[in-house]
Amino acid sequence: MKFGATSLTAAALALAGEALAAASKPNIVVIMTDDQDARLGSTDVQKHVQKLMAEGMTLQNHFVTTAQCCPSRTSYLRGQAAHNTNLTHVRAPGGGWEKFTAMGQDKDYLPHWLKKAGYQTEYLGKIMNGYNMATYAPKPLGWDHTDILLNPYTYEANNVVTSINGERPVFYRGFHQTDVFRAKALARIEHLTSLDKPFYIQIAPTAPHTQSDGPVVPLERHMYSLLDAKAPRNPNFNPDDAVQANKVSWVGRLHRLNESEVGFVDWQHRSRLQALLGVDEMLEDVLALLEDKGVLDNTYVIYTSDNGFHSGTHRQIGGKGLPYIEDTTVPMVIRGPGIKAGAVSKIPSTHIDMAPTYLEIAGVRPEDYPPFFDGRSLLSEWHGKKSSDCGRNGTGAVSKEILNVEFWGSIDNAGKPDFPRGQPQNSYKTIRIVGEKQAWLFSRWCEGNATELYNTLDDPYELTNLALNPTAEHTRLMHRLNGLLLVTKSCEREVCRRPWPTLQQEAGPGASFRNLDEAMAARYDGFFAALPQVGFQECMFYQYAPNEVPFYPPAAQLGLGTQWRGSSDNYPTHDTNGTKVPGNPGRMGTAAQRHATLADVLKSARNVTNAEIGSVVECVAPNYCPGGGD
Ligand SMILES: *[C@@H]1O[C@H](CO)[C@@H](O)[C@H](O)[C@H]1NC(C)=O
Ligand SMILES: *[C@@H]1O[C@H](CO)[C@@H](O)[C@H](O)[C@H]1NC(C)=O
Ligand SMILES: *[C@@H]1O[C@H](CO)[C@@H](O)[C@H](O)[C@H]1NC(C)=O
Ligand SMILES: *[C@@H]1O[C@H](CO)[C@@H](O)[C@H](O)[C@H]1NC(C)=O
Ligand SMILES: *[C@@H]1O[C@H](CO)[C@@H](O)[C@H](O)[C@H]1NC(C)=O
Ligand SMILES: *[C@@H]1O[C@H](CO)[C@@H](O)[C@H](O)[C@H]1NC(C)=O
């Protein structure tokens, strides 16, 4: 009897201890915008992002590994490069929500891992292209609560239609999308902070993305702000012919923007900034509520975007998807436990590092991480510690200077209908070295087998393509960078984190190089010069391994993440032909709506009708299926 009672007490105590430990795990709140640049000044106009920077840390060299939304969001949620998720585009056959689920990746991604660690997991806003009026049910797996935008309404700021937990979609009449999600986010955080559980909530408005049928639509109350704003006139803004001649593929063929096109670039830039003021208010309210609830200091608040954006740079009118700095870097600001106020870090990192970082925050033991992470946890760097750990299983934090950025298929020029628009082929593979002593961008494009090399330390605006007339030294360097690209274009796991050993093994006995400087030794000239060049056989719409030979080592062709996902061959996609909900007349997001609550928003909300849902239409895609924007 006595024995039994004691062990009961012990068990009860142990349980209470676990609950306490779980309750004190930090919360994670992520605001992820859509297409926000880090290099063209967009965060300068956001007072509350600035405040977050002052109270937290800014990562100045945070990259995405593929610069378009659906592939980048997938890499973020899986901790893997796009060549391993095989989510390589926004539409079938390259990617989209149904490709993600067809491969079973929705059974093994961030929300499941966080739930296992005791977290309540919630997702609001845009998730991936192809989550639409036909595919909203069942709700995305892993999340305790989802409230997600549905195509074709995802990019319609004044026409908000979402599905809560896979239920019949609701139309939120009379409100701007950013206000709807501000109100929803606050209501969820009210609820989350009442639970005795740590939480992860991702809030993903589509601002400042262009609308499906035209330019960005800010909230009405911000349409008269920042009227003098212009796209920055950096040295790579709309360059003259001599400079543009350095570019390859379709970018090299762009005409210089004329006065009316430059006017459009400025106008679009201004609309984007105005749209971001709405997100800034969302951040303001979220921070205030977390503080009010007394949980702010035990919460990691992360402000970022899914990919960057270009405005007038290299003669492009607007958009993303290029390998250049404006498209591939995103804002990354973190406030939370152990993070020094006002810290600025130049250590490079990427979105594939975020999932391992969250697991470390959640106290998951490295041996319990999923086996397939290509990224590494950044937590010790965020805490200002230098780590010498080699980052096995994505733990520890070996500072990484080598970044692989990749792209497959078409690209759009956002916003302006009369500008040369869809570029059918934009496939490339690149390697970046981001170091304090040297920094390079090396790219191999599909079209024309073209090569670029920029010294991004001396030439931060990526103007002078050193591959056009290379010196002997640049040729030696390109042989090394090609070697790194050969390894990283198909790397998995530890090889992505540390690609040099793979090359070293093949370089023969006695070879020893741990970094670019050591690899530049003359005795390796023969080895690197003899490696095959990275290239594509044909310019295709998606990743098809035989099209991308050679692989290095050759067995890498059989990897590409296939061990941890199912096949995606000939998966169908679905959409509907429903009638559109009648859009709002006039402009939503008035000053009177600044503090609209969820109850206010719900007053004029209604379920969509059967006619609006329509009948399901299927597409089995040898080429692109329609997919509702990018
Ligand atoms: C890495 O993960 C594997 C399989 O998940 C596990 O067996 C191993 O112990 C882990 N290694 C470290 C260093 O945590
Ligand atoms: C500028 O270029 C556009 C094509 O994008 C053309 O329609 C327009 O007429 C041009 N304007 C001027 C002033 O040349
Ligand atoms: C690139 O060059 C290789 C080798 O010459 C060739 O096999 C391949 O077809 C070329 N690719 C394209 C897209 O032109
Ligand atoms: C990637 O997806 C495409 C389209 O579904 C498929 O044909 C291809 O075989 C896949 N590649 C890999 C490496 O899984
Ligand atoms: C949608 O329909 C359901 C089921 O009839 C109902 O419970 C819900 O309140 C409706 N939602 C709105 C916003 O009208
Ligand atoms: C949608 O498709 C169904 C079945 O093909 C058809 O009966 C219906 O008329 C279509 N609706 C619209 C709005 O086109």
Automatic annotation (TrEMBL):
The keyword Phosphoprotein does not apply. Residues 26-364 form the Sulfatase N-terminal domain. Keywords: Signal. It comes from the Eukaryota. It holds the Pfam family Sulfatase. Residues 1-23 form the signal peptide. One of its GO terms (molecular function) is glycosaminoglycan binding. InterPro entries: Alkaline_phosphatase_core_sf (IPR017850), Sulfatase_N (IPR000917). Belongs to the sulfatase family. This is Sulfatase N-terminal domain-containing protein. It comes from Thyridium curvatum. The lineage of its organism: Eukaryota, Fungi, Dikarya, Ascomycota, Pezizomycotina.
